[in-house]
Design a protein that fits this description.
single chain; alpha/beta; Rossmann fold; Fumarate Reductase Iron-sulfur Protein, Chain B, domain 2; 3 domains; 7 strands; 38% helix; binds iron/sulfur cluster
């Protein structure tokens, strides 16, 4: 997405709107390889290019899927291994975590890890589930020498005290996007603010979270729903999205 200068089209599968020919053309233009639609060749190219970036980076910046309060553990879930690369290869790791990502105990984390991959990609467990506890310890030969955690509020406290607070239960699985007939027809890049900027979170949950966190610019996105309820049925944490969408429409 960075090579194309685009925002993600989906919160789990950000390049879902691209065909292999689009990727082939992009890699030919930006990375200088011969045009190909062969997926193993494209994957190998991405891996080689990214590996060099990870090796040369002074700082790795990642998100966090869950933080565990009782142990101070950061949990990052990926299928590509990029999370493990960015958190272990550069000498400094900075983790950015929304404050709603904190769960009390490791038992709570286990529950979340059973919900997230099943709803996100239909897997029992994501390929890489990484638990990070500390920087590199004495005697260890790899891992970041410094780790910093930034816990982000950025409107979440305001959202927590609003009628939209249920939206903070979201674990970003993307199931409501996949179930939504509007999202399925339009795709993620159709969720645009009144200033023309693409919403950071598309689909049903995005139409609640984007206005909830970022304000008036995205309020009209709550109209991009038939209120059919498919999103609520798909949600593993039972967020009543039709109810929240009607609240956004009502200006609550
Ligand atoms: S609202 Fe529910 S279904 Fe949608 S992304 Fe969040 S957890 Fe998943």
């Amino acid at each position: 997405m960075q090579l194309r200068g685009e925002k993600p089209a989906h919160i789990i599968t950000p390049a879902v709107h691209l065909r292999r020919a689009d990727v082939g053309r992009l890699f030919h233009e930006k990375l200088g390889i011969p045009y190909t639609e062969d997926i193993p060749t494209l994957t190998d190219t991405a891996r080689k290019v990214l590996r060099e970036v990870f090796l040369a980076a002074d700082i790795g910046i990642s998100g966090v899927n869950f933080g565990v309060a009782e142990t101070g553990t950061l949990c990052i879930v990926t299928n590509e291994g990029n999370g493990r690369m960015v958190t272990t290869m550069p000498p400094v790791h900075i983790a950015l975590m929304g404050m709603e990502r904190i769960v009390p105990t490791l038992d709570d984390l286990a529950l979340m890890l059973s919900l997230l991959p099943r709803s996100a990609t239909g897997q029992k467990l994501s390929v890489y589930t990484q638990l990070i506890h500390s920087p590199r310890r004495a005697g260890e030969t790899d891992g970041a020498q410094e780790r910093h955690l930034v816990i982000i509020d950025n409107g979440r406290s305001r959202l927590r005290n609003s009628p939209l607070h249920e939206a903070l239960y979201c674990i970003r699985c993307g199931a409501c996007l996949n179930a939504c007939p509007v999202f399925r027809e339009l795709g993620g890049h159709a969720y645009v603010g009144s200033d023309g900027s693409i919403a950071p979170y598309p689909g049903p949950i995005g139409s609640v979270v984007s206005p909830g966190l970022l304000g008036e610019n995205f309020v009209h996105l709550a109209q991009a729903s038939s209120l059919c309820g498919a999103c609520k049925d798909a949600c593993p944490v039972d967020i009543d999205l039709p109810k929240l969408l009607t609240r956004v429409r009502a200006g609550k």
